[in-house]
Amino acid sequence: MSATPATLTVHDLLGDKKRRNREARMRFLFRLAAVLSVVVSGLILFTLLRGAIDFLRLVPFGDLVDDSTAPGWFPRRERFDLPTVVLGSVVMGSIAMVVAVPFGLGTAIYLSEYASPRTRRIIKPIIEVLAGIPSVVVGYFALKFIAPDIVGPLFDPDKVQNMLAAGIGIGILIIPIMASVSEDALSAVPQSLREASYGVGARKSATVARVVIPAAVSGIVAAFIIAVSRAIGETMVATMAGGLDGSGPRAVSPLDPGLSITAALTNAAGGTDQVKDGAPFQVLFFLGLVLFLATMLLNTIGNRFVRRVRQKY
Questions:
Q1: pLDDT for residue 71 is more than 60
Q2: DSSP letter string, the chain
Q3: What confidence category does residue 36 fall into, taking pLDDT thresholds of 50, 70 and 90?
């Protein structure tokens, strides 16, 4: 006669007590890490807001647009023309994206669709390593090679330091980011979609352009948003190759020296315009808040677009 099997209880299904305690400790550590990240972000935002409010008490918001005949950013004279640094960031960032998007996306398409597995295994790690190059190295490259040997001979030899040289340097810096994230998005497209396209007679180029890229558009847009945020937030290249040492007139032409938000922050904090109090110091927090809000706006728009066009397979 066979023995009657023991009846399982809810307590038996809970598992070993030591394992439950270990999982509880890990859950607590992960929750603590999440809470700390939120707290640190909140403290940073609080510090920026407090400093920005102090700055606006010294300099009214209406005075941040210089309507004189020679508008510009001159912190030591307490002339804070916000369009000067915003336009500089937009011009340099736009040039950087013109450089980074075609080269980065083209590299991603080659690695995902045309390169052999052996070539992909070699090139992909190299691209990811290039993403970690210090920006000061790229800034020196833009200052010593791009500006005098490329931009100067092609346009104006007397203005070798300008926003065009800085934008090209920033674009080179963010090509690996654009390429790596886009390649991951393209590789995630199911092979069955490609095979279905080939099955109806489509060529490789048509399959890539009409099937693979539209299917991976959400990931490509995410790569674009990351690259734009990186371009706007780049500091050393804009500071070294932009052509202005913390102050200067408003400029719109890429061939003129310009000043980005990050370059103005760098020079105000530790460059030629270093101060310890007053409006020239408090403007650090105001510019930091502007940069934070711009990045948050870009990410919000990108996330909404990605959620709208994302396809699940």
A1: yes
A2: -PPPPPPP-HHHHT--HHHHHHHHHHHHHHHHHHHHHHHHHHHHHHHHHHHHHHHHHHS-GGGGS--SSS-EEEGGGTEE-HHHHHHHHHHHHHHHHHHHHHHHHHHHHIIIIIS-HHHHHHHHHHHHHHTTS-HHHHHHHIIIIIIIIIIHHHT-TT--SSHHHHHHHHHHHHHHHHHHHHHHHHHTS-HHHHHHHHHTT--HHHHIIIIIHHHTHHHHHHHHHHHHHHHHH--HHHHHHSB-SS-EE---STTS-B--HHHHHHHHHHSTT--SSSHHHHHHHHHHHHHHHHHHHHHHHHHHHHHHH----
A3: very high
**Would you kindly state where each structural domain of the chain is located, as residue ranges?**
10-58, 63-309
Position 107 scores a pLDDT of 92
Architecture per CATH, 63-309: Orthogonal Bundle (1.10)
72-114, pLDDT tens digit by residue?
Answer: 888 888 888 889 999 999 999 999 999 999 999 999 999 988 8
Query: For position 172, what pLDDT does the model report?
Result: 92
